[in-house]
């Protein structure tokens, strides 16, 4: 059965989508990976498919994660999970369930989201090794549904003061969720520092704060730190992972691969 990992932080701009996308590509080399875009900004969808293919999906009226959570309402038909899954061009082992802007309404109105997502993923998780959920930086019924189905939460965090604020908020939300759902606990796989650029002293002061905060609450902190590189936004524009982005420095690629190896070990994939 697939390991299901939610990527989340209650602070925007920490690299959730960039890490999710590159992690999905890296794991798909020898694993089957399904990615769910649970963010109404749908950045992961466009990152993986590109603007043109995504627009074709919308123009055809193909179902997205919005319709998945709204099945049976608003004359939306009930479909098998396979109808929501889209193949990523050039990567046979990587698939995605797309999002769209209207998801922001679904986040406010969806009912029974936990069981809907659980049942849908149960139908296909035997066909995948890893399922990654890319979440928005806020709590909603869909965020709670992500907790409900997940084995682990991965927390990207930038070495900046404001980014550290989202960590305790997310930790509190996970703790409260686990108290309400003692039979469906979600574990924190770890926090990973993303975008380290050697900036002194602020960057390293923030890293020290992150270390202290995680240590005091027994939150695992990845030994690997993902370095800042302009090649990540370039890869987003070209729909390529860091390993295939032209002119990406070798040490940037090697650095992300080090994180992937640690992720595999922690998550058991």
- The count of domains is 1
What assembly state would you assign to the polypeptide chains in this entry?
single chain
> Describe the biggest sheet?
8 strands, mixed
Distance from first to last alpha carbon: 11 Å
What are the secondary-structure elements, in order, as H or E?
Answer: EHEHHEEHHEHEHEHEHH
Features:
269 residues
Can you walk me through this structure?
The protein has helices spanning 16-27, 43-60, 65-70, 103-109, 113-122, 141-149, 161-180, 202-216, 231-238, 250-267; strands spanning 3-7, 33-37, 85-88, 91-97, 130-134, 152-157, 187-196, 226-227. It is α/β, with parallel strands linked by helices and 269 residues long. Strands 3-4-2-5-1-6-7-8 form an eight-stranded mixed β-sheet, with helices on both faces. Helix 1 packs across helix 2 (43-60) and helix 5 (113-122) runs parallel beside helix 6 (141-149). The protein is globular.
Helix-strand blueprint:
Layout: E1 3-7, H1 16-27, E2 33-37, H2 43-60, H3 65-70, E3 85-88, E4 91-97, H4 103-109, H5 113-122, E5 130-134, H6 141-149, E6 152-157, H7 161-180, E7 187-196, H8 202-216, E8 226-227, H9 231-238, H10 250-267
Parallel strand pairs: 1-5, 1-6, 2-4, 2-5, 6-7, 7-8
Antiparallel strand pairs: 3-4
Helix pairs in contact: 1-2, 5-6
Summarize, please.
By secondary structure, this protein is of the alpha/beta class.
